[in-house]
Amino acid sequence: MSESVISYNSGPLATVSMGLPGDHEGKTATRVFFVRGGEKTALIDSGLYGGLPSLKQAFEELGVERQDLDFLLLTHEHMDHVGNNGWLKEETGCEILGHSARADRVADNMLNAKSIVHAFPEGENFDLNEEYLDWMGPTEGPIDKFIKDGDVIDLGNGVELEVVEVLGHSMAEVGFFERSTRTLVIADPLLPTFNPVLYLYEDPNVMRATFDKIERFLKERDVQAVLLAHDEVKSAAETQELVDDCRRRVDKVEESILSHIKAEPGISFLDLRDKCCDDQDMVREWRALVSIDASLKDFSSKGLVEQRDGGWHYVG
Ligand SMILES: [Zn+2]
Fold first, then answer.
1. Which of 24, 63, 151, 192 is the one with CA 20 to 30 A from 126?
2. Which of 228, 69, 50, 67 is nearest to 135 (CA)?
3. How far, in Å, CA of 161 to CA of 181, rounded?
4. DSSP-assigned beta bridge partners for residue 31
């Protein structure tokens, strides 16, 4: 067998690492997580389609029979987290659990890709096949049952996964807290410091409220370890540092937006994106449009900026 794909293995939890294609060059490898209880086995996220060989290898390495997988638990609808849903459903017959708010996207790969890549006219020149569709498998695995904050999935022998809503990066994102080991498994509310892409959020205020929620959760629940989809396993103290850094990065995006609108009245949406990415030395790409748009909406609602003749002006 080739090199192990299991990068963390402790108690009921095991992390499977998969590479990411394209400009990330493996830097932000995607991870999915097996959770094995006394009676049932769950997998948190199915990963990107290109990682399917790693997923198959993980079943072998862990000695989990495919038909013994009971649940696939989804953190959020982004394509690098649901890419093997269809394969898993077919091979294992598992029940797929996820947040209701983006169930339509999970059930339709093309809708999922278009709703983020082609959400703006400025994104229309991005090639879906090149950029994203290869992250998703040929078949979808729709959500069978909805989960919400506070729900508990009992896997037996004290292994219990509590659903923790962590919205902002996606407005349908949840994490899972494994109670017996006090391990928090979250995908993307906390993006790694080395992420080459501008902090991705759909609502800056909801994102900040989630940073506060995670900070409280670490203390109140005496969290021992945090498993993240695109970063190494962290202690509570290391996670707290990451939370602080994430706050700074979101603040920096918003400071950049305001400063460039002030410096260049009438600046276009696309130029704003480019300048904000340049300020933080990030890749000028389509996902950044989501965050810029979210902050502009928030600034507009507060009467700080307005759009006139296709450009943005400071009016605060
Ligand atoms: Zn994501």
1. 192
2. 50
3. 10
4. 17
Return the structure tokens found at 177.
Answer: 């807290």
Number of neighbours of residue 211 by Cβ within 10 angstroms: 19
Find the 167 Cα to ligand 1 centroid distance in Å.
Answer: 11
pTM recorded for the entire structure: 0.94
CB 8, CB 68: distance < 8 Å = no
Q: Which residues pair with 98 in a beta bridge?
A: 146
> Rounded to whole angstroms, how far apart are CA atoms 71 and 95?
5
- Write out the chain's pLDDT in tens, 316 residues: 568 999 999 999 999 998 755 444 445 578 999 999 999 999 999 999 889 999 999 999 999 999 999 999 999 999 889 999 999 999 999 999 999 999 999 999 888 988 877 777 777 776 776 666 667 888 999 999 999 999 999 999 999 999 999 999 999 999 999 999 999 999 999 999 888 889 999 999 999 999 999 999 999 999 999 999 999 999 999 999 999 999 999 999 999 999 999 999 999 999 999 999 999 999 888 889 999 999 999 999 999 999 999 899 999 8
> What domains are there in the chain, each with its CATH number?
6-236 (3.60.15.10), 249-314 (1.10.10.10)
Exposed, middle or buried: residue 173 (CB in 10 Å: 0-12, 13-18, 19+)? buried
- Alpha carbon of 144 to ligand 1 centroid (Å): 21
Output the CA 187–ligand 1 centroid distance in Å.
Answer: 7
Calculate how far, in angstroms, residue 219's C-alpha sits from the geometric centre of ligand 1.
25
Measure the N-to-C terminal CA separation of the chain; round to a whole number of Å. Answer: 62
